[in-house]
Structure formats: structure tokens, C-alpha cells
């Protein structure tokens, strides 16, 4: 796994006549913003750039300049640059075009890269790949337009929870300031990419929040979304994204759980905690995930499912 400097990566991009930028499945703001921001910069420099992603751009990022350029079918190029991931398996439908390109490079901030013969620039202390793209554009002396700044700000905002997550530091804020100077509009970008929801989602959230209750002296907070909540609000099961995180605003809470009913006796459970390992609890119940965010599915009647999960979580404090 050869490592390269940003300067070397800049040279490779300057030398390549045609470049394929590739991002991961289920693309997030950072993947899309980084790719669109860099693509615009490279095109200014006269490069032929194609953008590949196994999935289409989610609706909420379709205000970013150039989003229509993202393709699910792409061809190999002189240089393929993989952004915001370092495991080629997550490229799915675009992996073949990347691997068949004459040179393959990676620009990323995730740890644990598997061994594959790509030229890698990975810095795990970067809050977002968008920060690395910002620095790469500087090294390459490519001027930042307001369109590029908008894309990169959206990426940086996405990965830092708009400057509220633990990865928010002086570097992220300094880059954000430069992006705003170049024309990024913080209020609009946050509103369009993260805050705007369909009315049905808002009403579903309301149902979840009103159902919230606590156990163990307020340290465990849980909420329910039953079949009738989906039916009566008109929201689909995919509209529960972020609902469990809303529970985290309860003061004194340490573990947060959302029970979502998928069918009469079929429940999806989302778990969150900043201080206790809810990943292990999810695995014990046949699910998976990280220590801070995990999930599982259970079959059974509502009361039984709730008691099963609460009983497991209770052990976290013993
Ligand atoms: Mn990222």
C-alpha cells in the first residue's frame, strides 16, 4: 500500500489528461461534496473528469452545483482517484472501472485501509475528505470558486455534524472560514442538506418524541414508532433516519433507543450512546454496528421486545 504526499497526488492529477473520481455506495455529504468540488477544480484546469458512484445522489444533495454529473456507469481513465473511502469493495458497480484505470489513487480520512496497490494519501486526523480536497486544490494552485466552496463546505459540514461532533477542531473551522470567504453560505447549505425534511418526516418525529420515556434514573431514554405512526403520518420506514439521535438531547441520558415496528411482530431497534458500548448489546441480540451507534432486529410482541432490550442494556451499568 504505497503512501504518497498531497504534492505527489497533485502532480499525478496535473499529468493525467482524463480523470475518474469515484466515491462509495450510499454516498454522504462528504463523498459527494469532495468529488464535486474537486471535479470543478480539475475541469477549470482543462481536465476531462468523470464522476462515478454506485448509487444515485440522494435528493437532499441535489442543490450542489454539478450533482447531475455523477454516473453509475463509468469507464476507466488514465487516473482514477477514489475519495472518502479506502476499501475498493465499497465501490461496487464502479470498482471495475477504477481497477482497470492506468493508475489508481486514494484520498481519504478513514482508518484501516486494506492492502491493495493504490497510491494512498490517508490522513485520519482530517475531519472530512473535503478538508483534504481543499488542501489538495491549494497545493495544485487551483482557484476556489463559490461553487467549489459550496460543495466542500457541505462535505465538511456533513462529517462534523455542522461543527458539533468531536472531530470539530481548529483545522475544520479554519477551512470552513476559507470556504465561506470563497462564497459558501453556511445557513443555506445546512438548511438544504441537513435540516430540510418532508412534512411526513417531521410528523413522524413528533410521534417518536411524544412517546419518549426514561428508565434507570433517566440514564436510558427510549421511544417507539408503531405501524399506526407510519400510517397516520404518511411517512415511510426510511424516514426514521436521525430520529434516534434526537433523543440524545435529553439531559442526563446515556443510552438512547428507538423501537421501530416493521410488521405486527417485527421490530427494528436503533441504539446510541457516547459513553457505553451499545455495539456489543446489538451483537448479543443478533445485530451489529459501532460502540456508539448500532442496531438489531427482534421478532415478538411489543412488551416482550422492549423488556428484552432494556434488560440487556441494564447490564451496561453493572
Ligand atoms: Mn468522510
Give an overview in words.
This protein is of the alpha/beta class and 318 residues long. Helix content is 38%, strand content 19%. It is built from twelve helices and twelve strands. Strands 3-2-1-4-5-6 form a six-stranded parallel sheet. Strands 7-8-9-10-12-11 form a six-stranded mixed sheet. Residues 30, 84, 109, 128-129, 159 line the site of manganese (II) ion (MN).
What order do the helices and strands come in, and which of them pair?
Layout: H1 6-15, E1 18-22, H2 29-44, E2 48-52, E3 70-71, E4 79-83, H3 95-99, E5 103-108, E6 119-122, H4 129-139, H5 146-159, H6 170-181, H7 186-195, H8 199-211, E7 213-215, E8 220-225, H9 227-233, H10 243-246, E9 255-263, E10 266-272, H11 278-284, E11 288-289, E12 293-299, H12 302-314
Parallel strand pairs: 1-2, 1-4, 2-3, 4-5, 5-6, 8-9
Antiparallel strand pairs: 7-8, 9-10, 10-12, 11-12
Helix pairs in contact: 1-4, 2-4, 2-5, 4-5, 5-6, 5-7
The structure holds manganese (II) ion.
Manganese (II) ion (MN) is lined by residues 30, 84, 109, 128-129, 159.
